[in-house]
Amino acid sequence: MPPLDEFGLIRVWTEGRQSDSFLTAAGVTVGIGDDAAVVSASAGMEWVLAVDTMVEEIHFKPETMDDADIGFKALAANVSDIAAMGGMPKHALVSVSVPARWDAKRMERLYEGLYACADKYGIAIIGGDTTSAPQHLVVAVTVVGCVESGRAIRRSGAKPGQIVFLTGPTGLSAGGLHGMLGQPGKAGKRVAPSPPKRLIDAHRRPQPSVKAGRILLEGGLATSLNDVSDGLASEAWEIAEASGVKLALRETDLPISGELAGYAGLCGIAALDWVLYGGEDYVLLGTADPGAEVALREKFREASLPLFIIGSVEEGPPGVELALASGKSKPLLKRGYNHFAKG
To answer: PurM-like N-terminal domain location, by residue (predicted)?
Structure first.
């Protein structure tokens, strides 16, 4: 059989993955196979759009991600951005730049992961682009979602006197990454002990907080919101700067998983560093009026979702500080993952 061209490969990777009835229900008029996709819009809603790019050796390595995990995470990162606005993800465009050593079977597995994430969150994959790449795989995903007109939750709504909340523990992904990068050293021993499965799964297959975002929007419970992609401290700074306030977090109220704490101890690392600066957890960080706290806790309990009140919003120059268990406070640096950091 002759080698497939670009369009033949696209058919292999995408054909039959999603039923015609699902695509029609998702508003897809023209899907994969034409010059552009066409989807129907609904009244009273606004589109929410997000794009993320994953680059081999920057965002993933063979020792940290299976091929299907790469596809899943590439889509999940975008879904999380939609969730952080209180939106509902609907459609996705996927572009891949493929080096020669990534054969068709590997790309099939990558698309299996993409569609696994799409199916989990009800997303129709409707098109994209495919090119060759000289050395490393690049996966760029654009997600289109929708949100009720005028109701998207932004980073800029925090006000003094409000509470700061988190919709799940952080640091798990960073712990998993640390362990998976613990390659055999010169003496044949691992630099880091093997991490618990929960930490590995948190890094490879993160679960965006779409349900939590919808609860916050539908109940009018959040005044600002951000997803934790680059680290808790970094995302707190983004809310503080966008809102012109100070966020005061409390160490004793930060959720630290027992598995994370135990693994950090084995590695000789302070779990708090992963919690504050790890990133790629995709839980939501937000603020709310103190009078909404009871309703907030009740709604999340009814949905069997975690919720943690971790601090407060204060007046002052934009910044973030941490009240330590010792009773002292310290400013938190605007530190997290930075693609353009030197050194």
So the answer is: 33-147
